[in-house]
Amino acid sequence: MLGARLVGSSSRYTFEPLGDHDRGSFSCGVPELDNYLLHQATQDAKRKVAAPFVMVDSARHVIGHYTLSAYGIRLAQLPPEMVKKLPKYPLLPATMLGRLVVNKANQGQKLGQVLLMDALHAACETRKKSLQSASWPKA
Question: Tens digit of pLDDT for each residue in 40-80?
């Protein structure tokens, strides 16, 4: 699992895997998404269904969050011109980004873009780690 990461040079915010964070004051304005963070995200992490990440400020208040999940794309779902360029696996591995939201009090500050960039970074780092730990057949 990825550890804490600072955002930019200002380090005003930190990204962390969901843990013992103050989630009670978080509201993005969409009840289903708020309820997910409050009631479901920890269970999803424990079951390894999703990897929830939070963006926190210096007081450890949740400013935003997103989830990453493993996903598979069937070749038949892709355009034929794209399939020609890909390996002939029945499922291509992918990472699904879900539930990217910003606290209502912090909306309008382009923090969604920062969340998206961190999600892409986290997905790339996870991919690198999985490739490094894979056991490859010897030639």
Answer: 999 999 999 999 999 999 888 999 999 999 999 998 888 99
Res 41: pLDDT = 96
5-114 to CATH, choices 3.40.50.150, 3.40.630.30, 3.40.50.2000, 3.30.200.20 = 3.40.630.30
Alpha carbon 61 to its chain's center: 18
Going from N- to C-terminal start, the domains of the chain cover 5-114
Residue 1 has what pLDDT? 47
Contact yes or no for 138/27 (Cβ under 8 A): no
pLDDT less than 50: residues of the chain: 1, 9-10, 139
